[in-house]
Design brief:
99 residues
Length: 99
């Protein structure tokens, strides 16, 4: 539910501030929220509250990567490749124990 409202809000914010500024602001807020609030989410209700609030800002990376790439590199024939590489860079790595 938070992701739904977050994507609408981040789209509105990107229209007002710009897509790069909105992406940076949203990722900073999401990171600070993880540092400050995740530690205290010890119950199920706390995890639900955290996931709702994190959803307000966490969806910006999915929503704004393509407009930011288009703004930085322009719309070219290989834009899909650049967006794919940008999305891949945020994927988690393979843990050492999972050989």
């Amino acid at each position: 539910m938070g992701l739904f409202f977050g994507r609408v809000a981040i789209g509105y914010t990107a229209d007002r501030l710009g897509s790069i500024q909105s992406l940076v602001l949203s990722l900073e807020i999401a990171g600070l929220l993880q540092i400050a609030a995740w530690h205290y989410a010890t119950s199920f209700a706390g995890c639900l509250a955290f996931s709702f609030v994190y959803g307000l800002t966490g969806g910006a990376a999915l929503s704004l990567i393509a407009p930011v790439i288009a703004q930085i590199y322009g719309v070219r024939d290989n834009m899909a490749t650049i967006v794919g590489l940008a999305m891949l860079s945020s994927a988690p790595g393979k843990p050492r124990w999972a050989l």
